[in-house]
Every structure is written in structure tokens, then in C-alpha cells.
Design goal:
Order of helices and strands: EHEEEEHEEEEHEEEEHEEEEHH
Shape: globular
Domain VOC: 8-123, 141-259
CATH topology of the largest domain: 2,3-Dihydroxybiphenyl 1,2-Dioxygenase, domain 1
Organism: Streptomyces aurantiogriseus
Largest sheet: 9 strands, mixed
Helix content: 10-25%
Protein name: Oxidoreductase
CATH superfamily of the largest domain: 2,3-Dihydroxybiphenyl 1,2-Dioxygenase, domain 1
InterPro entries: Glyas_Bleomycin-R_OHBP_Dase, Glyas_Fos-R_dOase_dom, GlyoxalaseI/FosfomycinResist, VOC_core
Pfam family, one: Glyoxalase
Number of domains: 2
Number of strands: 17
Structural class: alpha/beta
């Protein structure tokens, strides 16, 4: 198995109760492209990304995170990960096989330590994509996903042990200790982060914009449209990326970002950033202040799908 079997984040799949509003939001306001639908499941691509889709939305009575999908280096990496997980008693949802989702490929699914469904895949066909132009304020690609956890240290240990994620930085609260851990699977500062939260849920999914101009135009457009802004615009210290967070129609948090830091993995050493320093949350000081109210808005509803595989 390769030294770094996981290559990147592919897509984030959610189930929602108000399906029609969610589909309209992604297509008409967030700037994604609908690439397939059967009426109860819709796939959305980012115009600048070779991934077949970056978000899947499913109609459901229960709001949940259906799954998070990561790319693997090759079939040996897929098979090696499946064997490693199964040998240690991690529950596999499916064995490595040909995938039936758009783009095909080879992969499997399993439950992580808190019951989320995770997919690992390789050989998925690339989608025809294009260069995003100047001042075009739509997402280029899916940047990263952040997961809420009541036991974040346990979560981090699981992803480090089984999927070989590496710690980039940690945000630390003076009373609570660690509150957010930034994990990478490639030189990008983080493809996933884990946030301390009272329950298991999706914290947010983040979408990369072309640059600062496009990021600000997109943020402003959504604010003018009356989309509920949770926090931003600003720039984080960990990852050095910009941020504006919004609530989608079902109360999930979605982020526009750009300029996420690329690391030299041979020389990088993780930092501890204290939340007592206001620049940890926002280097620029341009966003609304991070406080308990803003933090709670990102707690989301408790996930209703733990240790239950999605039907698709």
C-alpha cells in the first residue's frame, strides 16, 4: 500500500428534508452545476473540478450527512485500507468493488469510529471541466470538510491511524483545550478538520473560489440575496484561508474560501493557536466576532444517520 494512500477529498453527500429548496440553493445561488438527478437524488459538480460531483443531495425524512468520499492512490491502496480496517474490527459497509455512482471507479465504504459513512475510491473517470474566469464568482472545487465530534481526540487518532491523515495545526481554547484539529492527506493545509461539539454532525463543507476578487464577489452576492451569513468575511490563521460561512435552506453551514495554504511537508511542524488571540479566528479583523452564538450556529443538528448506511 502507498505511504500516503488517501490523495484528496472527492465529495460530501447530504440528506435533507427540504430537498427542493436545497437543490435550488446549490444550482441558483451557490454556483454549482446540476449533472444528474432522479427526483430524489441530485448530483452537483463544480465547474473547475475534474470530480464527477462534489455534492450529492438526497431527499429524506431525516437530516444527515450521508457520506464523505476520499480519493485513493490506486487499487492497492483501496484494498490495503479495507484490509487494515476489517482486520481491526472496523465495520465495512461494502467490500472493495466497482462503484455504481457517476464516473464508476473502484472502492468501498465503512463506518468511522463515530458512525459516519466514509467512502474510499480510485479510478473514477474525470469530468470535463474548465478554467474559472476572472470575476466569475462560482466555486472552482470542493476545498475541505469539517466534522463535529464530542470526542475529537478519539476521532483524530482514528483518522491518523487508519487513513494516514497528518496534523497540520490545532486551535486551542484556554479552558476547553483543543477545539479544532486541521488534518491533511496531501500538501493542502487541510482536507478535513475535526471540531469539538456536544454531538456528531456536519460542521461545514467548504468551496474554493478562484481568488480574492471572486471570493468577495460571491460572498457579497449571497449576502445581498439574503442568505443567512453566519460568520465572515475574514481570514483564518490556521490554513491562512479566507472564510465566509452561510446557512443553506436546511441549516447546514457552507463556506466560500480561497488561498488555502500549501505546505512543505518535509519541514512543516504543527502549531498551537490560542483562541484568546483574536487573529487566530480572523487575521484581518473584518468579520463579525467569533463568540458562543456563532459557534453554536455551526453545531448543526445531531446527525440522524450514525451507523446506518445511506440507501444510495
Amino acid at each position: 500500500m502507498p505511504d500516503q494512500p488517501i490523495t484528496h477529498l472527492r465529495h460530501v453527500d447530504i440528506a435533507v428534508q427540504d430537498y427542493d429548496k436545497q437543490v435550488a440553493f446549490y444550482e441558483q445561488q451557490w454556483g454549482l452545476t446540476k449533472v444528474g438527478s432522479d427526483g430524489d437524488v441530485t448530483y452537483f459538480a463544480a465547474e473547475g473540478s475534474p470530480e464527477q460531483y462534489v455534492v450529492r443531495v438526497r431527499r429524506s425524512q431525516d437530516k444527515r450527512l450521508d457520506l464523505v468520499s476520499f480519493g485513493a492512490a490506486d487499487r492497492a491502496a483501496v484494498d490495503g485500507l479495507a484490509t487494515r480496517l476489517a482486520t481491526d474490527g472496523v465495520k465495512l459497509v461494502s467490500e472493495p468493488d466497482t462503484l455504481q455512482t457517476p464516473g464508476g471507479g473502484y472502492g468501498f465504504r465503512f463506518f468511522d469510529v463515530e458512525g459516519r459513512t466514509i467512502e474510499i475510491s480510485t479510478e473514477v473517470a474525470a469530468r470535463t471541466h474548465r478554467r474559472i474566469e476572472e470575476r466569475e464568482d462560482i466555486p472552482v472545487r470542493l476545498s475541505h470538510v469539517v466534522l463535529n465530534s464530542p470526542e475529537p481526540e478519539r476521532m483524530m487518532a482514528f483518522y491518523e491511524k487508519y487513513l494516514d491523515f497528518r496534523l497540520s495545526d490545532t486551535n486551542v481554547h484556554p479552558q476547553l483545550g483543543g477545539i479544532m484539529w486541521f488534518l491533511r492527506c496531501n500538501p493542502q493545509h487541510h482536507s478535513m478538520a475535526i471540531a469539538r461539539c456536544p454531538h456528531v454532525s456536519l460542521h461545514h463543507a467548504s468551496f474554493e473560489m478562484r481568488g480574492l476578487e471572486e471570493y468577495m464577489r460571491g460572498s457579497g452576492r449571497l449576502m445581498r440575496d439574503g442568505i443567512h451569513k453566519v460568520w465572515g468575511p475574514g481570514r483564518h490563521r490556521a490554513g491562512d484561508n479566507t472564510f465566509t460561512y452561510f446557512h443553506d435552506p436546511n441549516g447546514n453551514t457552507m463556506e466560500y474560501t480561497t488561498e488555502l495554504e500549501t505546505l512543505d511537508e518535509d519541514t512543516w511542524h504543527p502549531h498551537l493557536y490560542s483562541t484568546e488571540d483574536p487573529e487566530t479566528s480572523d487575521v484581518w479583523g473584518t468579520s463579525n466576532p467569533m463568540n458562543d452564538f456563532v459557534s453554536r450556529e455551526m453545531f448543526n443538528d445531531p446527525d440522524r444517520g450514525l451507523f446506518i448506511a445511506p440507501p444510495v
